[in-house]
Design a protein that fits this description.
With 73 residues, the chain is an alpha+beta fold. It has a domain of 51 residues. 21% of the residues lie in helices and 14% in strands. It contains 1 helix and 2 strands. A hairpin with a 6-residue loop joins strand 1 and strand 2.
Length: 73
């Protein structure tokens, strides 16, 4: 089992929050997050990347632009 990352303080500007101030959906694995990102792309045409959250240890989706190096597809 991989070691847990140390949690960072959770600030509203962190990548754990959506633009509307609500927490992002937590996916338990990269694979689950990629599946959800692919579904979103098919539904809305919005391409999203996924990244592991330093706060909750889960995986989130995010826009590919603006966070270069953190998102991968």
């Amino acid at each position: 089992m991989p070691a847990r990352r140390a949690h960072r303080p959770l600030a509203l500007g962190s990548s754990h929050w959506r633009e509307d101030g609500q927490p992002k959906v937590r996916y338990p694995s990269r694979s689950d997050a990629l599946t959800a990102a692919d579904e979103r792309a098919r539904e809305s045409g919005t391409e999203l990347g996924v990244y592991e959250c330093a706060f909750c240890g889960g995986w989130h989706m995010g826009r590919r632009s603006g966070r270069a190096g953190r998102l991968d597809a």
